[in-house]
Amino acid sequence: MSEKQFMIKSHVLEKLKPEINKAISLITQAIEAKRPIWIRHHSDTDGYCAALALERAILPLVYNRQAKERDVFYFYSRLPSKAPYYDYVDATKDLTNFMNNINRFEIKPPLIIICDNGSSEQSIAAIKKVKIYGAKIIVFDHHPPSHEITKIVEAHVNPHFVGSTYDISAGMLCAEIAKQINPDIDQMEFFAAVAGTGDKVESREMEEYVKLCQKHSNYSLELIKDVAICLDYEAYVLGYIESRDLVNDILGAESSKQKKLIEIIKPLVKESIKQQLETNKRYMQIEEKEKLIVCKLDIESTQMFAFPPSGKITGITQDYLIEKYKKPVISLGISNDQINIRCSRELKKFDVNEIIKILKENLPYAQINGGGHRTAGSISFVEAAKEEVFNIVEEYIEKM
Fold this sequence. Notes:
This protein has 400 residues and is an alpha/beta fold. It is built from 15 helices and eleven strands.
């Protein structure tokens, strides 16, 4: 197992290899022992790519262990999660479902694999709950991790543990792991490239996956971008629904259907984003500082409760302003009980998670929650605390 090579050369992946091998061993042991495997994943492009890569690797192996084809889906399940962490509500649903299966079919508690949303401290209570009833847990994530998670799960693979902050997304990571679990599957370089594109990863690793796509699979950069945004759109539309055939076809399981789906979805996405950006340009408030642009956008009054969601609204505003001003930008998408934040990566001292920590310390009554990456995340709070929260966020930005 340890001798298998990754699709690309990466010191991050090499450093993660011991924990990756541990996770792979747990997955193969679960398949051999007929332990059900459940995949929980964030409902965005990166999360879907992560989960579907593993699904393509695991499902054929599960089939091989079953006497009847219909029994496979007693032993495999995949469900998207809207929350950017393993939500307590999702965990309770998972627990209820797998305990029903245990009681009805006398099968083992599952191995739950959490992709792109399991590393943060918000996941702790949910993970502890399902583990009481015998579930085993693997986390594949790339968000800033809690070391407490590592103590309570069977394996925790996260690039942050080896000094990487944003070189490899969860989907890129899981594409590599899937290829090691089942070397017979293809398209994994494409999954990795789509995942990284969807999560706006800019790294040498990302460049290598794109080169592999273009060299060996004839996947153009345009197709990679089209699939990333179309998958993001379908993830938004699907919500909590698990749609195996549709999302697999968008990712190229059947190329003719992929082309037809992109022809339908891409114009819808482009028009939605175009309309939203025009609204943003009209109503955003711009503060131009000497070395920095700060944008404030009232999401409550500028969104039609359709795609794009509030985080993406903030993101497309950020992209537009960076292109326009050619200097670092901080964009704030402000709702009554949430602030979505996007920040140019060259502002090295900015950290969304640090802001959350400050808010929790100063406003213990505001029910502060949230998280994300250093330069992209969200903060939620009770509506009554909106002004106090915003004042502290503004003070933090002034220090930039």
